[in-house]
C-alpha cells in the first residue's frame, strides 16, 4: 500500500508574523519557512507505517512555489521515498486555496492509487483546516480528521479522533484520508547522512496545468490588518492584591 | 436569501450556546433555517425552534446520523443545499469535520472560524494564529462558513417556530463509529464558561492539576490547558486552548504556569480580563495580562483559592 502525504511550506511557527503596512498581506520575504508542523507529524506517521511493514512507499507532495522543494527534501530526509512538486505559483505570497490543492491531490490520488492519504489537520498560515476533508469529498473516500492514534489493519484504519468532548474512535474503509493532530506522534529529526541521501531521491516536478486544475482563488483577499492590540496591565505584588483587583473589576 | 445553520448536537443534545451564537452570526445573511441532524434529533429540534431569529427548523432524525460521521452527514447537507445561499455552523470540531466536505461537494471554498460578517460575500477571519485579520470576499455562488463562537453573542429564545422533517440522504457507509471517550464533568463547558482557569507545563504533573481544578471549582470555572500540559499527559486533549485547540473569550482567564506562546495566546487573548501567575517575570504571558503575579504557582494558586 502506498501512502501519500501532502506537505505545505509555511512560515516557521517561531517567527513573529508582520502585517504589511499597506494592508496587502503579511511579510513573507526573507522569513524562515518550514514544513507545516502537522505535516511533519503526517510524514512521521507514514514512515512508521512503512517501518511496520504496513506501507510500501511513502510519497510526499507539495503544491505552491518552487521553493517548496526544500520542504519536500526535508520529508525525503525524514524517510519518504519520493516526492512530487506541483508548481502553482511564483510569488511566495500566493497561497493556493484548499479547494484547488484538493483537486490537484485528487488527480494525484487517481494516478498513484494510495491506500491512505495523511494530511495535516491545519496549515498554520491560513489556519483553514479544510484540505483533507475536501480531498475526501472529491475522491469519495472516508475521512478521519484530528487523528490522535492510527492503526491500519485488513483494509481499514481505526482512528481515535481528538474532538471537542474528548476522543472519538471510528473505523474507516481504505482508501481513506486521515488528518493528524498534535498527539499522533513526535516527528523524528533527519540525520545528516539521511539529508545527504535525500538529495538523490526522486523529485518529480509538475505544474497545476499538468493536472488540469485551475488554481485561481475563489476568495479575494480584500485586506489584511493587525488584530486589536492588547495592552499589558499591571503586576500585582501579592495574592491579596490580586483578589482585591478582581473584586474591584467585578469578575469574582 | 436563506441561510442554513447546522445545529451543534451531541448524542441528541443540542448545544444551545454554540447554535444560538451561529444564529446571531447568520441573521444578517437572510432568513435562518436551523438543521438538526442526529439519530436522536427531535428534542434538539424542539429547543432550536425557540431560538430568537430562527424562521424554521428542519429535523433529520435517522439512525444513519448517529455520531455524526462526516460522509453521511455531508451527503445530507448537500441534498438540502439547493435553496440556501449560505450554509453555516458554529466552528466546533464536529462542524470543521463536516463543512469542508460539504463545500468541496458543492465545488466552493469553505471559510472557517469567521469572526465578522461584512456583507453577504465578505467576511473577516483570523490567520497566522490570530496575528493577522484577513477580510475576504467570496466569488462562490454558495458560501460555506463556520463561525468562531467566542466572538458572537448567543441569540435569545422566544416562541417556537415550526419543525419540518426531512428525509435521509444516501449514506456511503464508508465509516463506522466504535467508541467515545468523554469525561463526565459538572464544570461548565470550556467555550461557553464565564471564567476559565488554565494550567501549563509549570503545573508539572497530572496530580498537580488538582490545584488548578480546585481554583476552577471555587470560581465555578471551566479548566483549560496549554498544549505542553496536554502533550505531557497532565490534562486531556479537549482542554487545550489555542490556535489548534479551543478558542475562548471568558470574562476572566487565569493562566497558571503558562509562558504565553503565540499559539496559546491565539486561543485566549480576547478574554475580558487576563490573570497570569508565573514565576518567570519575563514570561510573554505578562504582556497580555491585566493582572500579573510573579510567584510560584504551588503557593499562589492554593492561596488564591482560599482567599476568594
Ligand atoms: C503547530 C503547533 C500548534 C500549537 N498549538 C497550540 C495550542 O493550540 N495551544 C497551546 O497552548 N500551545 C500550542 N502550541 C505550543 C506552543 O508553541 C507552546 O509550546 C506551548 O503553548 C507552551 O506551553 P506552556 O506555556 O505550558 O509551556 P512552557 O512554554 O514550557 O511554559 C511553562 C511556564 O511555566 C512557568 N513555571 C514553571 N514552573 C512554575 C511554577 N512553579 N510556578 C509558576 N510558574 C511556573 C515557567 O516560567 C514557564 O513560563 C502549538 C505549537 C505548534 C508547533
Ligand atoms: N499547498 C499545499 N501543498 C501540500 N499540502 C497542502 C497544501 N495546502 C494544504 N495542504 C495539506 O492540507 C493540510 C491542511 O491544510 P489547510 O486545509 O490549508 O489548513 C496541510 O497540513 C497539508 O497536509
TrEMBL record, chain A:
<dbReference type="GO" id="GO:0009055">
    <property type="term" value="F:electron transfer activity"/>
</dbReference>
<protein>
    <recommendedName>
        <fullName>Electron transfer flavoprotein subunit beta</fullName>
    </recommendedName>
</protein>
<keyword id="KW-0813">Transport</keyword>
<dbReference type="InterPro" id="IPR012255">
    <property type="entry name" value="ETF_b"/>
</dbReference>
<comment type="subunit">
    <text>Heterodimer of an alpha and a beta subunit.</text>
</comment>
<comment type="similarity">
    <text>Belongs to the ETF beta-subunit/FixA family.</text>
</comment>
<dbReference type="Pfam" id="PF01012">
    <property type="entry name" value="ETF"/>
</dbReference>
<dbReference type="InterPro" id="IPR014729">
    <property type="entry name" value="Rossmann-like_a/b/a_fold"/>
</dbReference>
<feature type="domain" description="Electron transfer flavoprotein alpha/beta-subunit N-terminal">
    <location>
        <begin position="23"/>
        <end position="215"/>
    </location>
</feature>
<dbReference type="GO" id="GO:0046395">
    <property type="term" value="P:carboxylic acid catabolic process"/>
</dbReference>
<keyword id="KW-0249">Electron transport</keyword>
<comment type="function">
    <text>The electron transfer flavoprotein serves as a specific electron acceptor for other dehydrogenases. It transfers the electrons to the main respiratory chain via ETF-ubiquinone oxidoreductase (ETF dehydrogenase).</text>
</comment>
<dbReference type="InterPro" id="IPR000049">
    <property type="entry name" value="ET-Flavoprotein_bsu_CS"/>
</dbReference>
<dbReference type="InterPro" id="IPR033948">
    <property type="entry name" value="ETF_beta_N"/>
</dbReference>
<dbReference type="InterPro" id="IPR014730">
    <property type="entry name" value="ETF_a/b_N"/>
</dbReference>
From TrEMBL, chain B:
<feature type="binding site">
    <location>
        <begin position="257"/>
        <end position="264"/>
    </location>
    <ligand>
        <name>FAD</name>
    </ligand>
</feature>
<dbReference type="InterPro" id="IPR018206">
    <property type="entry name" value="ETF_asu_C_CS"/>
</dbReference>
<protein>
    <recommendedName>
        <fullName>Electron transfer flavoprotein subunit alpha</fullName>
    </recommendedName>
</protein>
<feature type="binding site">
    <location>
        <begin position="240"/>
        <end position="244"/>
    </location>
    <ligand>
        <name>FAD</name>
    </ligand>
</feature>
<dbReference type="InterPro" id="IPR014731">
    <property type="entry name" value="ETF_asu_C"/>
</dbReference>
<feature type="binding site">
    <location>
        <position position="201"/>
    </location>
    <ligand>
        <name>FAD</name>
    </ligand>
</feature>
<feature type="binding site">
    <location>
        <position position="278"/>
    </location>
    <ligand>
        <name>FAD</name>
    </ligand>
</feature>
<dbReference type="Pfam" id="PF01012">
    <property type="entry name" value="ETF"/>
</dbReference>
<keyword id="KW-0274">FAD</keyword>
<dbReference type="Pfam" id="PF00766">
    <property type="entry name" value="ETF_alpha"/>
</dbReference>
<keyword id="KW-0285">Flavoprotein</keyword>
<feature type="binding site">
    <location>
        <begin position="226"/>
        <end position="227"/>
    </location>
    <ligand>
        <name>FAD</name>
    </ligand>
</feature>
<dbReference type="InterPro" id="IPR001308">
    <property type="entry name" value="ETF_a/FixB"/>
</dbReference>
<keyword id="KW-0249">Electron transport</keyword>
<dbReference type="InterPro" id="IPR014730">
    <property type="entry name" value="ETF_a/b_N"/>
</dbReference>
<dbReference type="InterPro" id="IPR014729">
    <property type="entry name" value="Rossmann-like_a/b/a_fold"/>
</dbReference>
<dbReference type="InterPro" id="IPR033947">
    <property type="entry name" value="ETF_alpha_N"/>
</dbReference>
<comment type="function">
    <text>The electron transfer flavoprotein serves as a specific electron acceptor for other dehydrogenases. It transfers the electrons to the main respiratory chain via ETF-ubiquinone oxidoreductase (ETF dehydrogenase).</text>
</comment>
<dbReference type="GO" id="GO:0009055">
    <property type="term" value="F:electron transfer activity"/>
</dbReference>
<comment type="similarity">
    <text>Belongs to the ETF alpha-subunit/FixB family.</text>
</comment>
<dbReference type="GO" id="GO:0033539">
    <property type="term" value="P:fatty acid beta-oxidation using acyl-CoA dehydrogenase"/>
</dbReference>
<keyword id="KW-0813">Transport</keyword>
Amino acid at each position: 500500500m502506498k501512502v501519500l502525504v501532502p506537505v505545505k511550506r509555511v512560515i516557521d511557527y517561531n517567527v513573529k508574523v508582520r502585517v504589511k503596512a499597506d494592508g496587502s498581506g503579511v511579510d513573507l520575504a526573507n522569513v524562515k519557512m518550514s514544513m507545516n508542523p502537522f505535516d511533519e507529524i503526517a510524514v512521521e506517521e507514514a514512515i512508521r507505517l512503512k517501518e511496520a511493514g504496513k506501507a510500501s512507499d511513502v510519497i510526499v507532495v507539495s503544491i505552491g512555489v518552487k521553493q517548496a522543494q526544500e520542504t519536500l527534501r526535508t520529508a525525503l530526509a525524514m524517510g519518504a521515498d519520493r516526492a512530487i512538486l506541483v508548481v502553482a505559483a511564483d510569488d511566495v505570497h500566493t497561497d493556493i486555496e484548499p479547494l484547488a490543492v484538493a483537486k490537484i491531490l485528487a488527480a494525484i490520488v487517481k494516478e498513484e492509487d494510495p491506500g491512505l492519504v495523511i494530511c495535516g489537520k491545519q496549515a498554520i498560515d491560513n489556519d483553514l483546516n479544510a484540505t483533507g476533508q475536501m480531498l475526501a469529498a472529491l475522491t469519495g473516500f472516508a475521512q478521519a480528521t484530528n487523528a490522535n492514534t492510527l492503526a491500519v489493519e485488513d483494509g481499514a484504519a481505526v482512528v481515535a479522533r481528538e474532538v471537542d468532548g474528548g476522543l472519538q474512535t471510528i473505523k474507516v474503509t481504505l482508501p481513506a484520508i486521515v488528518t493528524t493532530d498534535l498527539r499522533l506522534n513526535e516527528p523524528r529529526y533527519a540525520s545528516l547522512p539521511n539529508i545527504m541521501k535525500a538529495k538523490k531521491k526522486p523529485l518529480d516536478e509538475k505544474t497545476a496545468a499538468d493536472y488540469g486544475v485551475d488554481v485561481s482563488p475563489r476568495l479575494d483577499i480584500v485586506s489584511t490588518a493587525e488584530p486589536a492590540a492588547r495592552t499589558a496591565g499591571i503586576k500585582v505584588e501579592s495574592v491579596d492584591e490580586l483578589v482585591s483587583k478582581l473584586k474591584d473589576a467585578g469578575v469574582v | 436569501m436563506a441561510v442554513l445553520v447546522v445545529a451543534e448536537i451531541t448524542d441528541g443534545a443540542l448545544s444551545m450556546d454554540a447554535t444560538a451564537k451561529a444564529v446571531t452570526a447568520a441573521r444578517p445573511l437572510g432568513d435562518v433555517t436551523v438543521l438538526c441532524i442526529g439519530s436522536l434529533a427531535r428534542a434538539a429540534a424542539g429547543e432550536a425552534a425557540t431560538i430568537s431569529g430562527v424562521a424554521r427548523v428542519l429535523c433529520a432524525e435517522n439512525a444513519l446520523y448517529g455520531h455524526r460521521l462526516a460522509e453521511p452527514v455531508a451527503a445530507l447537507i448537500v441534498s438540502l443545499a439547493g435553496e440556501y445561499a449560505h450554509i453555516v455552523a458554529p466552528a466546533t470540531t464536529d462542524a470543521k469535520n463536516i463543512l469542508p466536505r460539504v463545500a468541496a461537494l458543492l465545488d466552493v471554498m469553505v471559510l472557517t472560524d469567521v469572526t465578522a460578517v461584512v456583507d453577504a460575500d465578505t467576511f473577516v477571519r483570523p490567520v497566522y494564529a490570530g496575528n493577522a485579520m484577513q477580510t475576504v470576499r467570496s466569488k462562490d455562488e454558495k458560501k460555506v462558513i463556520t463561525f468562531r463562537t467566542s466572538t458572537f453573542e448567543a441569540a435569545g429564545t422566544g416562541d417556537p417556530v415550526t419543525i419540518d422533517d426531512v428525509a435521509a440522504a444516501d449514506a456511503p457507509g464508508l465509516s463506522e463509529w466504535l467508541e467515545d471517550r468523554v469525561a463526565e464533568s459538572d464544570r461548565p463547558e470550556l467555550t461557553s464558561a464565564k471564567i476559565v482557569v488554565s494550567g501549563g507545563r509549570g503545573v508539572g504533573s497530572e496530580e498537580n492539576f488538582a490545584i488548578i481544578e480546585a481554583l476552577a471549582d471555587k470560581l465555578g470555572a471551566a479548566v483549560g490547558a496549554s498544549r505542553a500540559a496536554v502533550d505531557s499527559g497532565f490534562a486531556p486533549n479537549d482542554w487545550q486552548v489555542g490556535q489548534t485547540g479551543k478558542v475562548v473569550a471568558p470574562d476572566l482567564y487565569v493562566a497558571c504556569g503558562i509562558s504565553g506562546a503565540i499559539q496559546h495566546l491565539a486561543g485566549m487573548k480576547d478574554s475580558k480580563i487576563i490573570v497570569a501567575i508565573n514565576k518567570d517575570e519575563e514570561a510573554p504571558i505578562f504582556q497580555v495580562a491585566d493582572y500579573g503575579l510573579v510567584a510560584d504557582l504551588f503557593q499562589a494558586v492554593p492561596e488564591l483559592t482560599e482567599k476568594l
